[in-house]
Amino acid sequence: MRLGTMTLDGRQLTVASVDGTIIHDISQFAGAEGLSGLIGSVELSDIVRIDLPSYPIVDPQQADWLPPVSKPNKILCVGLNYSTHAAEVLADVSEHPTLFTRFPSTFVGHEQPLIRPRVSDTLDWEGEIAVVIGTGGRNIDAEGALEHIAGYTVMGENSIREWQLHSKQATAGKNFDRSGSWGPWIITRDEVPDPAALEIVTELNGERVQRGKLADLVFDIGSIVAYISTFTELSPGDVIATGTPAGIGHRQNPPRYLSPGDILTIRIPGFVELSNQVFDDAEDPS
After folding, report:
1. Residue 88 — very low, low, confident or very high, per pLDDT cuts 50/70/90?
2. Between the CA of residue 30 and those of 6, 130, 135, 210, what are the distances in Å?
């Protein structure tokens, strides 16, 4: 099952699809809390058995995509989690996960404008696989952590490199409004029997610039969830970005950054595809 969030005529809809083609409005089933409330209150087995044909069909040409969980309580990101990426930025692999946070306002949905801020032209791409928490908790055991995952998606966890390098803390460069994107769907975990086999591919204007597999992570999903849940309680709808593989623009020679008109596409082949066009702040069409 694919689960997402759209807006139509000023209303926020929880939507679902079997394969991403025919989209159904399941807002009545999800309730007022939307997708985060749905995955936190209903067993995954019940969600995937929804009788979709009994719910209204949504025309994607008439609606706009939001991130699947529009306002998660937490968005936590793992840095330097592919050894290839650590090598290209000349960083050592850490003994523990390197974490930073992002704000919900920094993300837009599928096919919505990505905004390059007026203060810097160093917007760089970072394609990642992200997981969405379904069952929260503290001190989650790594071996059972996947049972706490509602599903998987893709994220453009992009960075304003100039601002990221202002200090040793990445917060500024990671939190420009509408500089990143994620979605359009959460793929429920029943469709992903082996998460380690998932592949992430990033394309810029049709050219592949990044490729990696979750099997290549320094810290796997179970380890990440266990580590995070040791210091903070995870809640339904929380998002964890697992890291980006090698191929960022900042380390190309010469450095290459996103420019207005560029199309950034990030996919898990066979599962989900996220695409956004880049605009300058002054040209924002929204």
Report:
1. confident
2. 13, 22, 16, 35
Integer Cα distance of 217 and 13 in angstroms: 34
Indicate the pairing of strand 186-188 with strand 2-8.
antiparallel
Q: At residue 86, does pLDDT exceed 90? A: no
Mark whether 32 and 145 lie in a shared domain: no
Q: Write down the pTM of the prediction.
A: 0.95
3-class state of residue 203 by DSSP:
strand
Average pLDDT, the chain: 94
For 56-61, the CB contacts below 8 A with 24+ separation are: 56/24, 56/25, 57/22, 57/23, 57/24, 57/25, 58/6, 58/8, 58/13, 58/15, 58/23, 58/24, 58/25, 60/6, 60/23
The number of folded domains in the chain is: 2
Percentage, residues of the chain above pLDDT 70: 97
Residue 120: Cβ within 10 Å count: 15
Whether residues 269 and 238 share a domain: the answer is yes
What is the percentage of the chain residues whose pLDDT exceeds 90? 90
| Apex 115 CA angle, 114 and 121, nearest 5 | 120
Six-digit token string for 92 = 């050592």
Is the pLDDT at 83 greater than 90? The verdict is: no
Here the CATH number for the domain that contains residue 88 is: 3.90.850.10
In the chain, the amino acid numbered 238 is: D
User: Is 50 in contact with 1 (CB distance < 8 Å)?
Assistant: yes
Cis status of the peptide bond prior to 184, with omega within 30 of 0: yes
Q: Which domain holds residue 43?
A: 2-64
Asked whether residue 193 falls in the same domain as residue 205, the answer is yes
CB 258 within 8 A of CB 239: no
